[in-house]
């Protein structure tokens, strides 16, 4: 059985060889766990069924034919031992006979053994199968093509009858379709912003081109809700004036009880015929949608039906504090329309994209920004101001308590709406385009609960929101997912991290609202003491099979929508099974050697985020450091012995693959997620993304890669440390961070065609970095030597930046010299005096 050491790795272990016993695990003190990317490798496989065979992923026929263990219900896999009569389960080691399998028709019984071994589920570590599938959209028939119905066919023409019958069955039912609904905040909207929104909406139509999607646009401004209204008859008559394309409703809030606020009329009452008028088909009504969007999304005066009440006539002259933002009521109205459309059989699922320019402040779901933060009033402002001046220890303490207060949602309205959406098959994405505080931590649960994304952009015309939304809609993904994790005896999943919810009834079962091939989930593994006891405290079990290495099997079920090359859109319910084995490290040396530093960092990051929620930022940061101290100390003692404790080896010079550890933890402490001075909304978005990150992406968040390009056509590139004095004047650099790509030219490095080869290599690096990311990073080009403002790059030079442990103004060096080494020396001294633990390392 090959141990999966290289890509594609759906399950990535903290170490390729797990410590053989809890003692060895304690001796090295690395976290033990896995990062799972359940849909890794399905990007192209879904579109083309042949592609996944090449990737090593096999598709098998149907669920009921796959053998499952009678004891743990695990799936058969290449890790199982099989013979002519049955198989031994790779996870629980129970034996199941083919007769006992719930397989009909003997897929395994009475089959020659050689043939048995060739079955995909027996041969491959990963396989998937469809549980159900339905066609939800077919391409438009060519104009003029006559679709023969059954009635047109002569009764004796059985061949044509059968054709027509097949066509009827495979044609989509209208009620299976889906809808995209866009909610746009037009308060204080400039003409550029409206243009951006129009481009974005038409981009969405484009993204789903050829699919029979229903399309709705809701906009709000002041006390008015505007719903794009496509009236096919009126358009035909040629009187498509601006008012005809918008239904305008007024919001009133004269009542003292916030729950009683609302719209004077409902959208349903304003729709003359059916909800199809506000949810037109993007396939047949495309031109009408385009017209309506063009006429409807205008900045400034909104014309006709609105009163002067809360509607601002112009985009300028109002700070967001004056603006009435009725997001909650508008969302409620939009969801009402969607649910009615479900009832009417117009469609069965929907995706709602919400665009906000500030925190909601009127009606249900309003956020009282002024009272956010513990000091009441200026909390947000203080956090942001402190980012400018070098902070003192007291500042750190104050900032942490401000940040902690802002991490807690102001109320749970959006969480409840998000849950309602998840139940009814509606995903909501929250996109904030603003430079002011929007209370994202209160809004984020709406997206997180329903399976959508939280995104944030500066309020500028050139933000990449159009491209990001396009990718959001086109990228392959699964919704309504369940993840089942099974492990072999001695191993135990103790805690799960990421955008998942543990099932309350079944241990090892998790619910995930949505998942893309990029998304990852992390699990802590523990040694199950009861199981390990009968195996002498290590993984080698005394049961039936001779040796059983640590094994994890993930079974992932999800619903996905795919479009084939000929334009047929299919919704499928799939299950994907992956089995992964690690080796067993007999000694601490082997355990150290096989550690995967990025997976270790990812688990430490997940622990830190969970601790921040549970115990606050100060405690979370302290615990991350405690771990680093213990890890560095133990590795030092292991590699160099106790007597050389004077100069602690924080760079792991004898275990070079662990060298990034210290910097990764430092970067994590300085990252938006954990640094108390980060802008609160940015922290919330970073946190929401980090929870879904793969191990490598977590490492990029903490300590992005900075690559040096030496001048004069040299193809040699080197990754270097993130500090100013590492940058040379005659070189160029590319920094590859999740949200920014920065090209930096040293003052004497060539630029702009001085040397084509040189620029070509750099552009190549930028292109590759962009390709890796789902959300497009912003690309900066900065010339050194005082020509351009270096601030964007300096924000990433982590080693020049301080944490509270740095000593004043000393950055990473100060942290290592004054803090980390001293604490490690202390730790080593204590352990030597205590006498425990060290011996186990040998
Ligand atoms: Zn089993």
TrEMBL record:
Question: What spans are recorded as compositionally biased (Gly residues)?
Answer: 301-312
Q: Name one GO molecular function term.
A: zinc ion binding
* Lineage: superkingdom: Eukaryota
- Which region ranges are annotated with the description Disordered? 295-321
Q: What GO biological process terms are annotated to this protein in UniProt?
A: COPII-coated vesicle cargo loading; intracellular protein transport
Q: Which residue range or ranges hold the Sec23/Sec24 trunk domain?
A: 322-458
| SUPFAM superfamilies given in the database record | beta-sandwich domain of Sec23/24, vWA-like, Zn-finger domain of Sec23/24
Looking up Pfam families in the UniProt record yields: Sec23_BS (PF08033), Sec23_trunk (PF04811)
- Give any Gene Ontology cellular component: endoplasmic reticulum exit site
Give every Sec23/Sec24 beta-sandwich domain span: 478-564
InterPro entries to which the protein is assigned, alphabetical? Beta-sandwich_Sec23_24, Sec23/24_trunk_dom, SEC23_SEC24_subfamily, vWFA_dom_sf, Znf_Sec23_Sec24_sf
Q: What is this protein called?
A: Protein transport protein SEC23
**Species, as recorded:** Ostreococcus mediterraneus
